[in-house]
Amino acid sequence: MMKSYIRMNSIHFQGKAWQIKMLLSQWQKEAGPTAKIIDVIHSRYKK
């Protein structure tokens, strides 16, 4: 099982490489090809 830890200015993944690649690919499709990773982190950060 893959785990992700999202903080205000960082993100950490724990899992298999193919799982992380799949997740990042999905996030890129949702955010668009020109989105910066910091914008994606901030949009997913929950206090």
Question: How would you describe this protein?
Answer:
Pfam families: MciZ. It comes from Fontibacillus solani. This is Z-ring formation inhibitor MciZ. Helix content is 49%, strand content 17%. By secondary structure, the chain is α+β, with helices and mostly antiparallel strands. It has a two-stranded antiparallel sheet. It is flat and about 25 Å long.
Keywords:
alpha+beta; 47 residues; Z-ring formation inhibitor MciZ; MciZ; 2 strands; two-stranded antiparallel ribbon
Task: Briefly say what this structure is.
With 47 residues, the chain is of the alpha+beta class.
**Secondary structure tally: strands:** 2
Structural class computed from helices and strand pairing: alpha+beta
Mean pLDDT: 83
Main sheet?
2 strands, antiparallel
Strand content: 15-25%
Protein name: Z-ring formation inhibitor MciZ
Organism: Fontibacillus solani
InterPro entries: MciZ
Pfam families: MciZ
Write the layout of secondary structure elements.
Blueprint: E1 3-6, E2 11-14, H1 17-31, H2 37-44
Antiparallel strand pairs: 1-2
